[in-house]
Amino acid sequence: MTTLDRTDLELLAALSDEPRATVVALADRLGLSRNTVQARMTRLERGGVFLSFQRSISSTALGFPLEAVVSVGVRQSELPRIISEIARIPEVVQGHGLSGQVDLLIRVACRDARHLFDTDARILAVEGVERTETSLVMGEVIPYRLGGLMELARRDA
Known about the structure:
By secondary structure, the protein is of the alpha+beta class. It contains 6 helices and 4 strands. The chain has helices at about 5-15, 25-30, 35-45, 80-85, 115-125, 145-155; strands at about 65-75, 90-95, 105-110, 130-135. The longest helix has 13 residues, at about 35-45.
């Protein structure tokens, strides 16, 4: 992981404000040379700072309006294989490994309740999955955000 200085944090804040900004636009905004911005962007990318360049797409727009989170309990000794098998289920859009009572938290997108039931059954059918508990997503109330953390990091830098 790359250590971030004040200039890196300003660059990340500018990208957060305008994700589609060009290197030239970022350089103008930050008062830096284009080469400096490009070099820093490359270093940040190589350092694992950027999680994804994939554009976020609405599952609803694709015809999968019903979202749910599935809490999954597994046999710990088989976790890597179980994760691999669950990742092959197309309705699985995200997954997190957790500590505590729940081993995996899986986010799925489905067409309707029947499709969700079938998807949950496929997760439960994976050898080593011991239990699942499914909760419907009623709406996103706090979107994924890092603005507050970036402000704290900039203040501390």
